[in-house]
């Protein structure tokens, strides 16, 4: 069961103190467990999309113009300056339309399809909003932070997929990230508007901003997947953003094998059974390829 965010850090610290040994990097041992798993939960973060050229906007250098994402991805920022926030998200939407799923996304999607044919399951729980898992072919997908390609009306709350490019005429050619770019100050009535009959409310990106709670229905689905899984993979996530950072340690705490695939150690690494170091697109495909014991 997923615990409230207020207790996440305390529980993680206790669990890490109990598990200070270095996790294994024995791929054959991981593959043996993988071959017997009936329900696989896959947690992914920004690192799985990095090899597709997707900027993370986290940490040093993670700026758009002179702002970090934390300064733009908030309800308060949108209320103060919806034009600036929409320029930022328009830039990200247009950028994503030029990117493709990489070998890690494709390996996960292929594995899901293959396991389904064997009566097994694989579900992706992602913090990413880029939809690259969806484009790679993943079907059992929970996007806990929403999607760049969905909008929500500030007036009627209608949520819908939106792949228009540009999303509205006023944003055509806008959103350049260079810090010397002049701000457009687009009038609010020219920004994306709701097309539901009789509404015309201002649209916002349907993503979870800093200071907002995760969608309770999506969170409940994630909890169900994590509670029943018999193997958990943590791929390309820093394990510092809560409550997602607590998902895998809680799975590990009940004795379920957890394998981390990342370019570096994370705060949760030593609580896991396995850690495989390297680019996700390189280390993940052989880990998820068909095992000798699997039917052809």
From TrEMBL:
* Sites where the protein binds substrate: 89, 92
EC top class, as a word: transferase
Quote the catalytic residue positions. Answer: 145 (proton acceptor)
EC number, UniProt record: 2.3.1.-
Q: How is the cofactor bound?
A: Binds 1 zinc ion per subunit.
Q: Where is the Deacetylase sirtuin-type domain?
A: 20-294
One Pfam family name is SIR2
Residues recorded as binding Zn(2+), renumbered to this chain, are 153, 156, 194, 199
What reaction(s) does this enzyme catalyze?
N(6)-malonyl-L-lysyl-[protein] + NAD(+) + H2O = 2''-O-malonyl-ADP-D-ribose + nicotinamide + L-lysyl-[protein]; N(6)-glutaryl-L-lysyl-[protein] + NAD(+) + H2O = 2''-O-glutaryl-ADP-D-ribose + nicotinamide + L-lysyl-[protein]; N(6)-succinyl-L-lysyl-[protein] + NAD(+) + H2O = 2''-O-succinyl-ADP-D-ribose + nicotinamide + L-lysyl-[protein]
| Cofactor(s) listed | Zn(2+)
Q: Does the keyword Nucleotidyltransferase apply?
A: no
**MF annotations from Gene Ontology:** histone deacetylase activity, NAD-dependent; NAD+ binding; protein-malonyllysine demalonylase activity; protein-succinyllysine desuccinylase activity; zinc ion binding
Subcellular location(s) of the protein: Mitochondrion; Cytoplasm, Cytosol; Nucleus
Give an example GO cellular component term for this record.
nucleus
Family matches, as InterPro entries: DHS-like_NAD/FAD-binding_dom, NAD-dep_sirtuin_deacylases, Sirtuin, Sirtuin_cat_small_dom_sf, Sirtuin_class_III, Ssirtuin_cat_dom
Keywords of the record: Cytoplasm, Metal-binding, Mitochondrion, NAD, Nucleus, Transferase, Transit peptide, Zinc
Record's domain comment?
In contrast to class I sirtuins, class III sirtuins have only weak deacetylase activity. Difference in substrate specificity is probably due to a larger hydrophobic pocket with 2 residues (Tyr-89 and Arg-92) that bind to malonylated and succinylated substrates and define the specificity.
Entry similarity comment? Belongs to the sirtuin family. Class III subfamily.
Q: What does this protein do?
A: NAD-dependent lysine demalonylase, desuccinylase and deglutarylase that specifically removes malonyl, succinyl and glutaryl groups on target proteins. Has weak NAD-dependent protein deacetylase activity; however this activity may not be physiologically relevant in vivo.
Kindly provide the name given to this protein in its UniProt entry. Answer: NAD-dependent protein deacylase sirtuin-5, mitochondrial
Write the lineage as a comma-separated list. Eukaryota, Metazoa, Chordata, Craniata, Vertebrata
Which gene underlies this protein?
A: sirt5
């Amino acid at each position: 069961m997923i615990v409230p965010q207020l207790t996440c850090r305390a529980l993680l610290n206790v669990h890490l103190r109990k598990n200070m040994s270095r996790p294994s990097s024995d791929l054959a041992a991981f593959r043996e467990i993988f071959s017997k798993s009936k329900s696989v939960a896959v947690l992914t973060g920004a690192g799985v999309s990095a090899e597709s050229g997707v900027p993370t906007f986290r940490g040093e250098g993670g700026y758009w113009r002179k702002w970090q994402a934390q300064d733009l991805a908030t309800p308060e920022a949108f209320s103060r300056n919806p034009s600036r926030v929409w320029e930022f998200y328009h830039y990200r939407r247009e950028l994503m339309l030029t990117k493709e799923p990489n070998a890690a996304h494709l390996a996960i999607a292929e594995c899901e399809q293959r396991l389904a044919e064997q009566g097994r399951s694989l579900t992706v729980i992602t913090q990413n909003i880029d939809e690259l898992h969806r484009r790679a072919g993943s079907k059992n997908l929970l996007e806990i932070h929403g999607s760049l390609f969905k909008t929500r009306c500030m007036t009627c709350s209608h949520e819908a997929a939106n792949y228009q490019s540009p999303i509205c005429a006023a944003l055509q050619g806008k959103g350049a990230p260079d810090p010397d770019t002049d701000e457009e100050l687009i009038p609010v009535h020219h920004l994306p508007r709701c097309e539901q009959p009789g509404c015309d409310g201002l649209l916002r990106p349907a993503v979870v901003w800093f200071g907002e709670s995760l969608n309770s229905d999506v969170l409940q689905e994630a909890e169900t997947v994590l509670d029943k899984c018999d193997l958990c993979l943590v791929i390309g996530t820093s394990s510092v953003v809560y409550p997602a950072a607590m998902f895998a340690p809680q799975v590990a705490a009940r004795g379920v094998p957890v394998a981390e695939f990342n370019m570096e150690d994370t705060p949760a690494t030593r609580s896991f059974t396995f850690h495989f170091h390297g680019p996700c697109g390189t280390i993940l495909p052989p880990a998820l390829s068909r095992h000798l014991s699997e039917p052809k």
